[in-house]
Write a structure and sequence with these properties.
The complex is a heterodimer of chains A (246) and B (116).
Chain A: E1 2-4, E2 12-14, H1 15-29, H2 37-50, H3 54-61, H4 80-91, H5 98-106, H6 111-133, E3 157-158, E4 166-167, H7 187-190, H8 196-209, H9 213-216, H10 228-241
Antiparallel strand pairs in A: 1-2, 3-4
Chain B: H1 2-7, H2 17-20, H3 31-42, H4 46-85, H5 92-95, H6 99-105, H7 111-114
Helix pairs in contact in B: 3-4
The chains are: A mainly alpha (246), B mainly alpha (116).
């Protein structure tokens, strides 16, 4: 089950991982739920821009992220709220707060747009980090696909446990499409549930990188070429460096 | 997850290593190489990543290296969803992360917890 992830690379990778990357880029270029394909690809470009933003470096280095004056270095395509959301989630995710999230929404971004953009950040960061970690060149961004967003809002979306609305497993409806592999799906799984298509796109990629949900709590088993403790050392160290409490 | 996966193999670990660095006694093969690789990737240090990758391929083989890169990158996505959506941190590990474990690991020193 081997394939080559990128043209010109001699490094063989799992076929499902290579396919997941191809599917993910295609999904990013397609019209989403609240954003057009053009805006989604523009968000992907801004995500890459954020990684070298000097203002983000200052924010990251500051004792408090809230006291830093200045503006983000942006490509200039997206609005102020989108840029702030993308740059902060890329550059300093461990120091976000509910009041900050509300301030982004107050600048004119809808909660659906917010969640869809967070899903894009998570996907692009995963894709680009993977190619960089493998020593491969960054993939060119895809051409956006024409079409209108679906503007689908799940009837069961409610702001309760998190800063943004979630669809709890018991509130998911048939109209939402496939949502949860299990009614016990953890909160990390529910994070993007307000935008079901973003949730599906994200997990189709993430499951190939880490492991599908049914294996997560089977600690005596590894479906990867490294052991489960080796897997979890990597996971724990990366999460700790991001100051992620989960 | 790390603690559980170690315990099921009958091994012990000092969970403080997650935040403070693992010592040479940790009973996970090539833990030092894995941690070095993870840190290099997070810090976006190309030269350090290249060195760490060479060591990874030497000890884990190409398949192990690819899977390690995939896992490290997966957690660049998970953390952003958790932190940007603000899912409740007390729900981590399906609510099984005990307060004393969070204290021991050093998670209570993280910005999100201290600011809560």
């Amino acid at each position: 089950m081997s394939a080559t992830l990128f043209a010109g690379s001699a490094l063989a990778v799992r076929g499902d991982l290579a396919e997941a990357h191809q599917r993910a880029w295609k999904a990013i270029a397609a019209p989403g739920t609240w954003l057009t394909g053009e805006r989604r690809v523009a968000a992907a470009a801004e995500i890459r821009r954020a990684r070298s933003c000097a203002h983000c470096v200052l924010i990251k280095a500051a004792l408090s992220p809230n006291g830093v004056k200045g503006v983000h270095q942006t490509l200039g395509v997206l609005g102020e709220a989108e840029v702030e959301l993308i740059h902060r989630v890329v550059g300093d995710p461990g120091r976000l707060s509910e009041s900050w999230a509300q301030s982004v929404l107050a600048r004119g971004l809808s909660d659906g747009e917010y969640v869809e953009i967070v899903g894009l950040v998570a996907m692009v960061m995963m894709l680009d980090t993977c190619t960089r970690a493998l020593g491969l060149p960054e993939q060119p961004l895809p051409a956006p696909q024409a079409g209108e967003p679906t503007r689908y809002r799940p009837a069961g979306a409610r702001k309760q446990a998190a800063w943004l609305p979630l669809v709890e497993p018991q509130d998911a409806t048939e109209a939402d499409g496939p949502m949860y592999p299990s009614p016990k799906a953890g909160y990390i799984y529910r994070g993007l549930s307000m935008v079901p298509q973003s949730m599906r796109d994200y997990w189709a990629l993430a499951n190939c990188h880490y492991m599908p949900g049914q294996y997560v709590y089977q600690f005596d088993k590894s479906i990867r070429a490294i052991t489960r403790p080796q897997t979890e050392i990597l996971a724990a160290r990366v999460s700790a460096m991001h100051q992620c409490v989960y | 997850m790390l603690r559980e996966s170690m315990q099921i193999e009958g091994k012990q670990m000092d969970v403080r290593g997650v935040t403070q660095g693992f010592n040479e006694h940790i009973e996970v093969p090539h833990a030092d190489v894995l941690v070095e690789f993870a840190e290099a990737v997070v810090l976006q240090d190309a030269a350090r990543t290249a060195r760490a990758s060479k060591n990874m391929r030497a000890v884990l083989g190409d398949e192990g290296f690819v899977d390690a890169a995939a896992i490290v990158s997966a957690f660049h996505g998970f953390v952003r969803i958790a932190d940007a959506i603000g899912i409740p941190y007390t729900s981590a590990a399906q609510g099984q992360d005990l307060p004393e474990l969070r204290e021991q690991v050093g998670i209570n020193e993280f910005y999100r917890v201290k600011g809560a």
